[in-house]
Design a protein that fits this description.
Elements (H helix, E strand, L loop, with lengths): L2 H6 L12 H6 L4 E5 L2 E4 L4 E4 L2 H4 L8 H13 L11 H11 L8 E5 L2 H18 L7 E5 L8 H5 L4 H4 L10 E4 L5 H4 L15 H9 L4 E6 L15 H12 L2 E5 L13 H5 L5 E4 L11 E5 L1 H8 L18 H16 L2 H17 L7 E7 L2 E6 L8 H12 L2 E2 L1 E3 L2 E4 L7 H17 L2
Parallel strand pairs: 3-13, 5-6, 5-7, 7-8, 8-9
Antiparallel strand pairs: 1-2, 2-3, 4-10, 9-10, 11-12, 12-15, 14-15
Helix pairs in contact: 4-14, 5-14, 6-13, 15-17, 16-17
Bound molecules: pyridoxal-5'-phosphate.
The site of pyridoxal-5'-phosphate (PLP) has 14 residues, from helix 6.
Length: 442
């Protein structure tokens, strides 16, 4: 699309998600093409992608093998139901996914997004306890500042106030929250996992004492909280959560929608931290975002309790028309093959120290009060402007876009998650551009 065509585009009908619609439509930023590390904007500028789209295009954009798989599948069979029917790609994709999931989490339930994966995982947790005669375990524990998507379950266990506010009267009732782990005073500019903060996991014991373990189905956390502004777990924190869950018969759910598929240099964060959850959600990088796809990996214990524990007939009354959609799963197969063939997780691990050094080079830059990173996930927190929280982050993002680099603002935190195919010079360029933008923004 050229500039003229873009100017003639009617922007009014599309009610845009998580967007300041009026602000955006008064000065739109349109992307019209993508390849490798770059988008092309509608006015023909190359935009270096510092965010893998939205934490999802891990292998880089429009990879030939994935494009071909999508095209072939669309021509061969557009859709087939997976309710009491099946098609090969869904089974193939589940098998390929299960090769990479941790421990015995080898049973894959498909959804179409991270939000649906989260709600599916919450329902599986409830169904598991019920199948074992512990249907009284209905409470979920999550964490302040957690992001688990936007459906009712995910919103209810979500800990970002703005995402809950309009719906607060209608949340899933039994949810309680652990404190988040960010403490800038104690741990500012930590490289990797902060040393401070493992004791915050002990808050789970307090909630167990308060509610009684027999009422709690599961704890759900992002191993590294992404959307809220990159909160890296303190050393020992996730291990401690695992221990406490085990002690009380509580399931542990890792929401790996961002951390999954190589972002920390291992297939999942579970392997990076050597902490195996009972249920694991994924989406985004599962098929390099070539088509909507989400999934839940369930342990043998959970799968068998539900599937083998049901006398006959349908075992789990849950599923989506598009669970295991042919095009989405064909894209997943091609993506996982590509990850393996190009050893992209090893490449992600190799780039992580380069990324760490580059992002921390912004220490001392104007407005910067903290920098956090792990693997190829990074956050730069800016001091908010007096009376206008979020304005500085937004303006820096717009400046970067004008200068040809895509970053993601979350309030006054700038977030980074480059594709794993990034070259070292491109990582350097991302942070050099951010530094220049920060110099220009008040
Ligand atoms: C940890 C986590 N869970 C769930 C979601 C929701 O995924 P989706 O936007 O695909 O519904 C996201 C999205 O960023 C996420 O980061």
């Amino acid at each position: 699309m050229n500039d003229r065509a873009a100017n003639m585009l009617d922007l009014s009908a599309f009610w845009m998600p998580f967007t300041a619609n009026r602000q955006y439509k008064s000065a739109p930023r349109l992307l019209s093409k993508a390849k490798g590390m770059y988008y092309t904007s509608h006015d023909g500028r190359r935009i270096l992608d510092g965010t893998a789209g939205l934490w999802c295009v891990n292998a880089g954009h429009c990879r030939d093998e994935i494009v071909a798989a999508v095209q072939e599948q669309a021509a061969e069979m557009d859709f087939a139901p997976t309710f009491q029917m099946g098609h090969p790609k869904a089974f193939e994709a589940a098998t390929k996914i299960a090769k990479h999931t941790p421990g015995d989490l080898k049973h894959i339930f498909f959804a179409n997004s991270g939000s649906e994966a989260v709600d599916t995982a919450l329902k599986i947790a409830l169904a598991y306890h019920r199948a074992r005669g512990e249907g009284h375990r209905t409470r979920f524990i999550s964490r302040e500042r957690g992001y688990h998507g936007v459906n009712f379950g995910g919103t209810s266990v979500g800990g970002i106030p703005a995402n809950r506010k309009a719906y607060s009267g209608a949340m899933v009732p039994a949810v309680d929250f652990l404190p988040h782990t960010l403490n800038i005073k104690e741990a500012a500019f930590s490289k990797g996992q902060p040393k401070w903060g493992a004791h915050l996991a002990d808050e789970l014991e307090r909630l167990v004492a308060l509610h009684d373990a027999s009422t709690i189905a599961a704890v759900i956390v992002e191993p590294v909280a992404g959307s809220t502004g990159v909160l890296v777990p303190p050393q020992g924190y996730l291990e401690r959560l695992r221990e406490i869950c085990d002690k009380h018969g509580i399931l542990l759910i890792f929401d790996e929608v961002i951390t999954g598929w190589g972002r920390l240099g291992t297939p999942f964060a579970a392997q990076y931290f050597k902490v195996t959850p009972d249920l694991l959600t994924m989406a985004k990088g599962t098929n390099n975002a070539a088509a909507p796809l989400g999934a839940v990996a369930a342990s043998a214990r959970i799968h068998d309790a539900i599937v083998n524990g049901t006398p006959a007939g349908i075992e789990l009354f849950h599923g989506y028309t598009y669970s295991g959609h042919p095009i989405a799963t064909a894209a997943a197969c091609a993506t996982i093959d590509l990850y393996e063939r190009e050893q992209l997780f090893a490449r992600s691990a190799k780039l992580a120290p380069v990324f760490e050094e580059a992002i921390h080079s912004l220490r001392g830059a104007r407005h910067v009060i903290d920098i956090r990173n792990l693997g190829l996930i990074g956050g730069v927190e800016l001091a908010p402007r007096d009376g206008a929280p979020g304005a500085r982050g937004y303006e820096t993002f717009v400046r970067c876009f004008q200068k040809g680099v895509l970053v993601r603002p979350a309030g006054d935190i700038l977030e980074f998650s480059p594709p794993f195919i990034a070259e070292e010079e491109q990582i350097a360029e991302i942070f050099k551009t951010v530094g220049e933008a920060l110099n220009e923004v008040d």
